[in-house]
Amino acid sequence: MNTYGVQAIYRFEMARWLRTLGQSLFSPVLSTSLYFIVFGSAIGSRMMEIGGVSYGEFIVPGLIMLSILTESVSNASFGIYMPRWAGTIYELLSAPVSAFEAVCGYVGAAATKSVIIGLVILATARLFVNYEVQNWPAMLAFLVLTSISFCLFGFILGVLADGFEKLQIVPMLILTPLTFLGGTFYSIDMLPEPWRTVTLFNPVVYLISGFRWAFFGAQAADVNIVVSLSAIGVFLAACLAIVWRIFKTGYRLKA
Amino acid sequence: MAEPIISIRDVSKTYKSGLQALKPINLDIMKGEIFALLGPNGAGKTTLISIICGIVNPSSGTVTADGHDIIRDYKAARRKIGLVPQELHTDAFERVIDTVSFSRGLFGFAPNPAHIEKVLRDLSLWEKRNDKIMALSGGMKRRVMIAKALSHEPKILFLDEPTAGVDVELRRDMWAMVRGLRENGVTIILTTHYIEEAEEMADRVGVIDKGQLIVVEEKNALMRKLGKKQLTLELPAPLERIPDGLNGYTLELAAGGNQLIYSFDAQAEDTGIPALLKRLSDVGVDFKDLHTEQSSLEDIFVSLVHRTT
Ligand SMILES: Nc1ncnc2c1ncn2[C@@H]1O[C@H](COP(=O)(O)OP(=O)(O)OP(=O)(O)O)[C@@H](O)[C@H]1O
Ligand SMILES: [Mg+2]
Fold this sequence. Notes:
The complex is a heterodimer. Chain A is an all-alpha fold. In chain A, 76% of the residues lie in helices and 0% in strands. Chain A has one domain (3-249). In chain A, helix 3 runs antiparallel to helix 7. The mean pLDDT of chain A is 85. The longest helix of chain B has 16 residues, at 168-183. The model of chain B has no long low-confidence stretch (mean pLDDT 87). In chain B, 36% of the residues are buried. Chain B is 33% helix and 28% strand. Chain B is of the alpha/beta class. In chain B, helix 3 (96-106) runs parallel beside helix 5 (138-150). At the A-B interface, helix 1 and helix 4 of A face helix 2 and helix 3 of B.
């Protein structure tokens, strides 16, 4: 195992992020605050409780997921797309670094950033609503697992993309709709059929539901926690398999 | 002769576009030598180097570096190799010292600030160590790339056109650096379009053209073998034509008949010069001065590449 290599990549990526730490944290914090003002305070005051929690509390887990998903994908995709675009990828390709090690470095750093952003948003949310987390270990585990999974997804996107536009289009056209329709702002029980069934094909539903379970317990969750965990597991495994193939064949990395 | 440190066996490359950039290549690079790879644009030099360094997948064949197969045992092989690619690819916002330290770590080596300092000093980058890379000039960026390649103390160094776009002074510096590395036992493979560079530096020369290795030869032997020598005789009075008695010699008149030039094969046992001189006095041609010239590697290179077209 080339641990120095993994460390080098990890530190490089974290340094890149820390150079613009202010911006990196400011935009997710600002957008979450806006959501809380609009949905939590303004609209939320007119909403009834969902699954035994107030609407303001109810949207906390979903909003954190919303930020984490977009930040993970954009951070991780940018981290590997930049060297491809600038040509500095030659060094990684010529280094004694295995696929697994490269992924540990790049995805590890991106996931670290996501978890930090998630925790900062969690703290910000406390300024607006008085939520309690029932199950801290489960909440943190969900945070970490989701970050890793979507950073892997972003990494794949960064490897496959052949232009900066693609890096932006995928999060915009796929991720944003999935998160908005994934139960961030509502419980899927509130949807009429057939939308309720259609929604069950959205993987983000399972993430948000599981995350909400960790916050408020089973009565606030849309689906069983085991189903949620399995959904993340499958997504993670699929991403790992794709990454493994990419490095095996050198697809889009090597001529 | 020394043992090979890189063995290339039947390595070929056909890009996805269908272009065959390399026909099967067989080549041994010897431990401790400076090997110059010459060839016109698009000949396949960068492709060959990229295959050895793991950036391009070969279509066929095997390569070993210091006994390690570059694919099966890529970690061991790559730890020994440093690469300075042809294109200037550097980070922008990082500091010089950070990017060089990063390279060392990436190649799996424990931090060694003393070595990094030495490399930066050797390349006159120490004063600039805290500068952002984007603030450096092109020549300085080239040095940063060399420093990155040397950060992990490689035994084998690839320099793909290291002196392209580099001023005369820096070029001399680089030559000195390359010689210093060789003295420390580093094997160096370089490509260049400045033939004088190969002539000055290389122990052996390989000429590649259209994906084919057409010559691999010790530089001196190559020059001896392919180098034409010319004997120029300065005549006291111009000749209108070559006297009849000199048929059978490859002679030509130059400088308006004031010079008589005799071309001969430098490799031949008998250059024919004594006989020619005797013959000249027989037919009554006098001369006031004479000198010989040897063709440069550049002439050789041009004639080789033309021969295959
Ligand atoms: N990634 C690629 N995909 C397709 N063709 C390529 C690729 N890289 C190089 N080629 C082609 O392969 C051939 C050999 O290119 P290569 O870069 O190895 O030449 P070179 O000898 O290094 O030339 P130069 O002196 O200009 O650097 C060229 O015809 C080039 O167009
Ligand atoms: Mg080239």
